[in-house]
Amino acid sequence: MIGKWHALVIDCEQPDTAATFYQQLLGMIRVDEDADWITIGDAADRPALAFQRVERLVRPQWPDADHPQQMHVDVMVGDLDAAEDEVLKLGATNLFAGGESFRVYADPSGHPFCLVLS
Question: Is the pTM of the predicted complex or chain greater than 0.70?
Answer without folding.
Answer: yes
